[in-house]
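Q: I'm writing up a methods section and want to include an example of the input and output format. Could you take the sequence below and give the corresponding predicted structure tokens, formatted cleanly so I can copy it straight into the document?
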Amino acid sequence: MIRNKTMHHESIIEAAMVEFLEFGFKDASLRRIAAAAGMSVSGLYKHFAGKEEMFSALVEPVYQGLLDLFRQEANDQEQFIGMGDLSCWDTGRDAKLAVAYIYDHLDAFRLIVCKSQGTKYERFLHDLAVLEEETTLYFMRNLREQGMKINDFSKKELHLLTTANVNAVFQTVEHNFTREEALHYADTLDRCFSRAWREFFGY
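A: Here is the clean output for your methods example:
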């Protein structure tokens, strides 16, 4: 019985991924998912409370994994910045790390970026940009407390710049880049944004 339930669950997950990728969350059909998984719609509810829980099962683990990667990279940078060493910003690798992770879980990120309207994930890019903004502001306060002179800037301007930075990374998903194309582009982004941030902050 346990084995059969596991097999049914896996069949639902596979069918749901295909359905959401083709139709998006809003237009996805539980009837089509059930038919593809070889069961009734009522059978789906033995595994998931509804369509949104099903969507979350496909994307939440990789979403949390990306946040963990972001936090780890921020922690690594903080060790340098805490000593007044900004070399980590001169050789940025944020975009390349993110893109490598995204392409390890590409279908899930296609769902988040392109197919999540109507779910809590539809503000994903905005929320990630806000997190990036908050982290940058924290680093700036840290540097000023160390006596380092940093250019004054508008918080609105910073918000737009971090939003542009985050959106630029996920353009690879929207434009169906291959992994090789995306990694090359990410390397270009890292070099471009490293120089731009240095100019912006004036260090």
